[in-house]
Amino acid sequence: MNIEQNSIACQLSLVRATLPEQVTLVAVSKTHPVEALREAYDAGQRIFGESRPQEMAEKQAALPQDIEWHMIGHLQTNKIKMIAPFVALIHSVDSAHLADAIQREAAKCGRTIDVLLEIRVAAEETKTGWNFTELMQYVRSAPFARMNNVRVRGVMGIATNTTDAQVIRHDFAELKRCFDMLRPYFGARFDTLSMGMSHDYGYAVECGATMVRVGSLIFGERDYTARPEPVAAE
Asked: What pTM was estimated for this model as a whole?
């Protein structure tokens, strides 16, 4: 899909029109320039999703301060400090190690950071996320009760990369099942099920998503030639 920049507002409006009122839209803006985000902002979008901490920090400094920034990509522990002062929601908490590190950085900033537990349901081994059985064992040990600066808001996941609607729906239904099983451990604050992207968010909404992450339908295809951040050891 090749969406011209001057049609971002139109594309954003089209996506919003397909979403029920109770579903939150995260505009996935990773690799797109500040100018594109500003056009979406001027069209009323206030929630943006990024996957690289350095890129997020640079955009946060350049754009209006009422934007709600969501970290949706895999997060290295040594990069948390770049976003801890301002990030609104971290979608990709996929290990106890990462949860502990977010707690430490949030405490240093005097903040409580909202997070989602990323669960792996897709068939691909390359996908990140908790094994649900291991996650349940971890949650039952009540570690989050000792994390005063981390607030677990729900679950995030990615469906198998396929055109088979039955497989996609199965993955999203499994995420919804995991969400429902975890909810009693966290109570009313546990209200976010983040699943669904540009190519499959319709199925996610059918299966109970409360938040979808849409990028290419709004901004066009990502610039894969953009310089990646250097990968450092955690």
From this structure: 0.91
